[in-house]
């Protein structure tokens, strides 16, 4: 009886304690507002301009956000010498400008993404300040512990039904994490942001460090603010759709194969369609581009895996063709990559590669302490083949006709996926573009660790400023070798300049030293064994070294790229806590050999027996920038030379496969060198495949280089 009484008292005390400690949503948000500067100071914020140094899926870039409170939001990415607007919101609409593809038209934001992001025009602080006026409902969901801190959790639900979770530190009431949940083509997707390093700027506190995992776009981002301006004058016209840029990309670029063809069923009817080992979970019309969107999950018994396939089919004006699209980094692909091809009249597909985010964590099952080999196979090649097969089946079901021609377009990892299709599934596609392809994936990824190993071995770390300065020095020294001074090394593979020539030069408040020169020389030479034997290629001279050999901190230390961090931890070592920052050349050699040997079958797309693809009429265009700051172009050159040897001659190879190399262009195909509109590559591929008219060269123009005013012709490698 006594024990029952004590138990009852304990329950009552616990309940009273929890109730007295509970807080209303208003209390939590008000304490956050007070913590970051107070309601009065936040209300005075009319605009914000934020510049960040960011790493997106392993690539280091500068990104910008511009917010005019209540009027507009725009995010941009700096890809070298131009800004590429990625997304813009205003009170009436949101749109995407896809300048990276060379297309200056804008596209409407997909419905679900617009619903989730339309209140970005108020900023996170502004949203929490005005959430009631904006029609949001809110509730407190209790608390949880994370990294030793207690976090208070609240949920806001927008008038459109989009839920967002906010986590505040119980002690400081600063915002630590937010999660926006939306239904993206039948899948619950999360956009996760983590905030850290709050600093005082004018009268408010703002987080200078951001980690973001956007499972909708397939992006993993880490960034730090380098510049922030508050209440600067901003022209509201930058948030308007540019004059002359239509809402939809024109569909008349490609002549329709079939005349007056229309869907044979309603889009929603596809949800009932049965395909073995496949479940169609979503089939619905998307109003932003008048397409039928389909999402399906493919399984491979006896494995308990799932490959997600995204498809988009034009409601009208289907051109009779199918286009597959690839991903980047550890991202298999996203539904967003379908926006452009579907508005051009293609039925089109992509896949998540068997995992929902842009990380490589899927390869290692921490719970069972083992590698997940089916997930590794899916990302390698199975998922792309699943997408292609299902895409053609659904296309035939929807229109009553099969695609007459099928094309695949991918860059970086998408370029590797393109080569996987050509080599493993040569009948899947009639035409393929592999841009800056990661053909030797299991080689080049380890290259990201080489600068760390070199610096650790030498116990000498070179600053980003010195890396940038020595890069400009080699460009200046070899710029005129082609007779034109344009800030570009025409053929960096022939460049003999040695960083010893830069020793003694002042860089900021420091001098470039012999030790600096030794490190830079080894990075350019590329990975070698401790005995000096060749392992793989380094970046070409003139490429951006500061992205590849990243250093930071006081004192300086080497910071490995995020892609290699995941590759070593989850594909090689099987230890998420492994510290890559300590790797020296001896350890590097072991990891390199393991990577090459362990994944040569799954991730080395170097098979040059393309006879089936060729005999089926297949056409392959490979492009690569000679200043690629992530994947050395020597890999593409090595593959093509080996392909020529296999085919027996350059002439026989050029009948179905052609390589085009672009001086001065980086991994995103930007730089001071002349570039070709990415749509021109695709139009040339279609013409070659369907009309047997092969491209002999591509017209190229400089985007932002006043030194060069004339167009140039980029000829087929080896420039014959």
From TrEMBL:
Single GO molecular function: carboxylic ester hydrolase activity
Signal peptide: 1-22
InterPro entries to which the protein is assigned, alphabetical: AB_hydrolase_fold, Tannase/feruloyl_esterase
Keyword presence, Signal: yes
Domain of life of the source: Bacteria
Keyword set, alphabetical order: Calcium, Disulfide bond, Hydrolase, Metal-binding, Serine esterase, Signal
Keyword check for DNA repair: no
Sequence similarity: Belongs to the tannase family.
Protein name: Tannase and feruloyl esterase
Organism of derivation: Chryseobacterium soldanellicola
């Amino acid at each position: 009886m006594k024990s029952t009484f004590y138990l009852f008292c304990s329950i009552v005390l616990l309940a009273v304690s929890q109730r007295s400690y509970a807080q209303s949503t208003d209390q939590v948000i008000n304490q956050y507002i007070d913590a970051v500067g107070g309601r009065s100071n936040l209300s005075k914020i009319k605009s914000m301009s934020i510049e960040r140094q960011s790493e997106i899926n392993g690539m280091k870039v500068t990104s910008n956000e511009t917010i005019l409170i209540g009027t507009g939001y725009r995010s941009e990415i700096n890809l070298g010498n131009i800004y590429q607007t990625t997304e813009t919101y205003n009170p009436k609409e949101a749109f995407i400008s896809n300048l990276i593809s060379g297309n200056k038209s804008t596209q409407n934001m997909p419905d679900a993404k617009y619903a989730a992001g339309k209140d970005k025009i108020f900023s996170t602080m502004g949203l929490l300040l005005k959430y009631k006026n904006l029609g949001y409902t809110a509730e407190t969901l209790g608390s949880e512990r994370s990294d030793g801190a207690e976090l208070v959790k609240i949920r806001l639900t927008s008038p459109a039904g989009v839920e967002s979770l906010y986590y505040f530190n119980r002690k400081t009431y600063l915002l630590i994490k937010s999660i926006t949940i939306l239904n993206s083509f039948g899948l619950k997707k999360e956009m996760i942001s983590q905030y850290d390093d709050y600093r005082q700027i004018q009268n408010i506190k703002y987080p200078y460090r951001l980690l973001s995992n956007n499972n909708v776009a397939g992006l993993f981002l880490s960034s730090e603010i380098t510049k922030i301006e508050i209440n600067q004058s901003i022209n509201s016209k930058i948030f308007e759709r540019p004059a002359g840029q239509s809402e939809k990309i024109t569909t008349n670029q490609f002549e329709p194969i079939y005349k007056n063809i229309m869907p044979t069923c309603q889009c929603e009817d596809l949800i009932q369609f049965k395909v073995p080992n496949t479940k169609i979970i979503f089939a619905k019309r998307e109003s932003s581009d008048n397409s039928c969107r389909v999402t399906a999950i493919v399984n491979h018994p006896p494995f308990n895996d799932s490959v997600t396939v995204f498809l988009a089919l034009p409601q009208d004006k289907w051109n009779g063709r199918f286009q597959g699209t690839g991903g980047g980094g550890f991202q298999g692909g996203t539904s967003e990559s379908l926006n452009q091809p579907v508005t051009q009249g293609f039925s089109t597909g992509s896949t998540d590669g068997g995992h929902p985010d842009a990380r490589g964590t899927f390869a290692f099952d921490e719970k069972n302490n083992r590698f997940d080999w089916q997930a590794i196979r899916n990302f390698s090649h199975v998922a792309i083949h699943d997408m292609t097969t299902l895409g053609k089946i659904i296309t035939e079901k929807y229109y009553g006709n099969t695609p007459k021609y099928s094309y695949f377009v991918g860059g970086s990892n998408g370029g590797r996926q393109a080569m996987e299709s050509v080599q493993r599934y040569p009948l899947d596609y009639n035409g393929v573009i592999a841009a800056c392809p990661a053909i030797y994936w299991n080689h080049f990824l380890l290259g990201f660790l080489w600068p760390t190993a070199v610096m650790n071995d030498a116990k000498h770390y070179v600053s980003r400023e010195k890396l940038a300065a020595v890069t400009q020095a080699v460009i200046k020294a070899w710029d005129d070798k082609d007779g034109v001074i344009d800030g570009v090394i025409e053929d960096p593979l022939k460049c003999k300049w040695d960083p010893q020539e830069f020793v003694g030069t002042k860089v900021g408040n420091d001098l470039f030293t012999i030790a600096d020169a030794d490190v830079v020389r080894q990075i350019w030479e590329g990975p070698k064994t401790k005995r000096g034997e060749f392992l793989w290629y380094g970046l070409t001279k003139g490429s951006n070294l500061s992205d590849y050999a990243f250093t930071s901190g006081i004192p300086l230390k080497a910071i490995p790229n995020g892609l290699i961090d995941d590759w070593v931890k989850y594909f090689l070592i099987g230890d998420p806590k492994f510290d890559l920052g300590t790797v020296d050349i001896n350890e590097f050699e072991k990891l390199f050999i393991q990577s090459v040997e362990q994944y040569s079958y799954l991730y080395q797309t170097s098979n040059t027996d393309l006879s089936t693809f060729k005999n089926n009429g297949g056409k392959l265009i490979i492009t690569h920038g000679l200043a690629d700051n992530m994947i050395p172009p020597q890999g593409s050159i090595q593959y093509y030379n080996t392909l020529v040897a296999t085919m027996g001659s350059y002439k026989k190879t050029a009948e179905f496969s052609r390589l085009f190399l672009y001086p001065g262009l980086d991994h995103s195909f930007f730089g001071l060198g002349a570039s070709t509109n990415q749509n021109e590559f695709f139009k040339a591929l279609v013409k070659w495949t369907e009309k047997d008219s092969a491209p002999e060269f591509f017209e190229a123009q400089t985007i932002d280089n006043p030194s060069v005013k004339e167009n140039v012709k980029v000829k087929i490698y080896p420039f014959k």
